[in-house]
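Input (Cytochrome c oxidase subunit 6a, mitochondrial):
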Amino acid sequence: MATAIVRSALSRAAIRVTPKTSVAPKRSFSSSAGHDDAYEAAKWEKITYLGIASCTALAAYVLSQGHHHGEDPPAYPYMHIRNKEFPWGPDGLFEVKHNDGH
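Output:
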């Protein structure tokens, strides 16, 4: 964008310096043929805000819905067998303590 502004200013200065008989032809780029850049920027800004709002609404809807956690596995007695004491005591680090005194 800045280079286009500088190029435009330089071409205008060159036209003023050269005689009127040799006018440089105006270049028209296909990307800006008849489009207003401010209009395009405003359009994409509105589209961006609409996209943000719709994604936020969709995420709020999806996260507000309940989901299935599954069943708890049965408490089989053979799954809690401890044949050897842990170095930190009779209970695991992340288990409920089985101390009857407390």
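The two ends are 74 Å apart (CA to CA).
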